[in-house]
Design brief:
The structure is a homodimer of 238-residue chains. Chain A has 238 residues and is an alpha/beta fold. The first copy, chain A, folds into 2 domains: 162 residues, Alpha/beta knot (3-Layer(aba) Sandwich); 55 residues, Helicase, Ruva Protein, domain 3 (Orthogonal Bundle). Chain A contains 10 helices and 7 strands. Chain A is globular. The interface between A and B is large, with 52 and 52 residues.
Chain lengths: 238, 238
């Protein structure tokens, strides 16, 4: 981690990419904008010659890419993750523009790793994957045909991150953000307590946890706040 | 030409593209952002199956593409043309950012055709071609590797044009925000419950409510979410 360049702290996570050409083109898109940390979740083909060809002079990004088997593994250690989605979703997180999301991600990346998560070419990201992220990003597009190519979407987001970098004044955050693991443990704790109090019926959960995740995702919880919330949960008799 | 959509008045001109895949991917990039007018100057291969495949659902843009033998022909009828260039040039035009250039082009496109001109994959645009254009645009990039793929550069510029288009139209939020009164009632409810569970000692409140207010303030709570949170508070035995 190089604190001099927050882009080094931004992971590009591709979940289940099917075309190796898109992996290579994404690596090139990243490097042209100054990013280098590529994480692949269960790629269909990797390494692959087609990926190397499309990466052009960004083969080093492919060589250093990390391959994972789950999104949890890919997000481990991050303090903030943004999911890309073209679909409109009910009950979704607040939706950020690429520019707004890039600004927030870059600010956090001055301290700790963050991630941008892209789904596979055919089906995108599942709701289950999206609720693991704290932000949802939608690239403005033609309502009649909004399906950007995967590497093209990576290019747009990396471009916005570069703009955010060039426009940024280095700032210090006063507070330490909670990690992915700490936030997931809070949700598990909360769920257990809600089942204990009878508010949440495990037989009929009615998307309750999803709604609560959506609410708290917007806050980007701090370490101290997670401790505080868990203290409250511990004080509740069940 | 549809005066209701100035993007119809923006030509994407590719000069001497060598890879048909890039022509197809450019067509897709254009259509996802709402552009449709593609002009090819002496393409090496066109039409081509590879272009059709990469265009995905934007084959109509390829079908309607105009093929020319010179940049003069491609720019005929335009009132403004912007050339893309990654290289630094002596004695060049003033250099515009993608965002600034998109704003100017779109404004002109409300009246008359304008063009964005991209060079071929290997050598880009010649100085002779650039001086046919009125503006020079440089996409901010990594100084160590600034060579965006051709279709990726088209994607970035078309994205900026779409932003320029959408920024002129105000939009409404999808969710209803909770009112000041509703939020204050939630805090009072929360405080009572925390006193009831023993977590909050009214003799020594230790800024607990202040910290919780700070946390929830960042979310801009919605009406439904306040109802949900108060439902949870009601379920807690004290």
């Amino acid at each position: 981690m190089n604190p001099e360049n927050p882009l080094d702290n931004v992971r590009i996570v591709l979940s289940h990419p099917s075309h190796p050409g898109n992996i290579g083109a994404s690596a090139r898109a990243m490097k042209t904008m100054g990013l280098s940390s590529l994480v692949l979740v269960s790629p269909r083909f990797f390494p692959d010659r087609e990926a190397d060809v499309l990466a052009s002079k960004a083969v080093d990004v492919l060589t250093q890419a990390r391959v994972c088997t789950s999104l949890d593994e890919a997000l481990s250690g991050t303090v903030l993750a943004a999911a890309l989605s073209a679909r409109r979703r009910e009950l979704s997180h607040a939706v950020y523009s690429p520019s707004k999301a890039a600004g927030i991600l870059l600010q956090q990346a001055q301290q700790k790793p963050v991630a941008l998560v892209f789904g596979g070419e055919t089906s995108g990201l599942s709701n289950e994957q999206i609720i693991k992220c704290q932000m949802l990003v939608r690239i403005p597009a033609n309502p009649d045909y909004s399906a950007l190519n995967l590497a093209a979407a990576v290019q747009v987001m990396c471009y916005e991150l570069r703009l955010a970098l060039e426009n940024s004044v280095p700032r210090e955050s006063e507070f330490e953000a909670a990690s992915f693991e700490e936030i997931e443990m809070f949700y598990r704790h909360l769920e257990n307590v809600l089942v204990g109090t009878g508010f949440l019926n495990p037989e009929q959960p009615k998307r309750l946890m999803e709604r609560l995740r959506r609410l708290f995702s917007r806050t980007r919880l701090e370490k101290d706040e997670v401790d505080l919330l868990r203290g409250i949960l511990n004080s509740i008799r069940q």
